[in-house]
Specification:
The complex is a heterodimer of chains A (about 110) and B (about 110). Chain A is built from no helices and eleven strands. With about 110 residues, chain A is an all-beta fold. In chain A, strands 2, 4, 5, 9, 10 and 11 form a six-stranded mixed beta sheet that branches. The N and C termini of chain B lie far apart (about 35 Å). The chains are: A mainly beta (about 110), B mainly beta (about 110).
Chain lengths: ~110, ~110
């Protein structure tokens, strides 16, 4: 059974700092990996999708990397802003399964 | 707005009552998913439709839960005889047939008293 772990569970940084969020998964035979942002009481906003054949994806100040062999992904946020405060979730799709398996998220607080 | 929409956004009910939620996916998205999220946890998969066919159901989906997607458009999720343990955020997502990125709606927060 695929398990997804995100460490740390919570992170607090001062504005302007670069930061890295971590995601690990137990089954390396993934189809793709998706990073999401969730604001309190809201739905999920897709940030980046990395296919299994890709090593990284970039969108603005966000960069996500994928290392299938080690079962790890990182989300790099450059020059953090208070508006980046949210919970960040990673999710993997394994093989022919249609659903995503999620981690529990990292709650990020960027202090002004 | 052409995103995924869900209705209602909030539902408070008494234990034992039935509730029904609706999800309208992004137009022309063939795949529709239901997830459940409890506080402090990531979403957990409940069920999945491709067009009108329900292709997968999680073991989390007890026989009190039923989902439909008539005509392959909107979907409904019904919970019968609600229990306090059903209190959660119910999320709907859709994706195109050709791609894998899933787009989520705002969710329906259910509170069972």
């Amino acid at each position: 059974k695929q398990e997804v772990t995100q460490i740390p569970a919570a992170l607090s940084v001062p504005e302007g700092e670069n930061l890295v969020l971590n995601c690990s998964f137990t089954d390396s035979a993934i189809y793709n990996l998706q990073w999401f942002r969730q604001d309190p009481g809201k739905g999920l906003t897709s940030l980046l999708l990395i296919q299994s054949s890709q090593r990284e994806q970039t969108s603005g100040r966000l960069n996500a990397s994928l290392d299938k062999s080690s079962g790890r992904s990182t989300l790099y946020i450059a020059a953090s802003q208070p508006g980046d405060s949210a919970t960040y979730l990673c999710a993997v799709r394994v093989g022919s399964a249609r659903q995503l398996t999620f981690g529990s998220g990292t709650q990020l607080t960027v202090l002004p | 707005d052409t995103g995924v929409s869900q209705d209602p956004r909030h539902k408070i009910t008494k234990r034992g009552q039935n509730v029904t939620f609706r999800c309208d996916p992004i137009s022309e998205h063939n795949r529709l998913y239901w997830y459940r999220q409890t506080l402090g946890q990531g979403p957990e998969f409940l069920t999945y439709f491709q067009n009108e066919a329900q292709l997968e159901k999680s073991r989390l989906l007890s026989d009190r839960f039923s989902a439909e997607r008539p005509k392959g458009s909107f979907s409904t999720l019904e919970i019968q005889r609600t229990e306090q343990g059903d209190s959660a955020m119910y999320l709907c997502a859709s994706s195109p047939l050709e791609y894998n990125e899933q787009f989520f709606g705002p969710g329906t927060r259910l509170t069972v008293l």
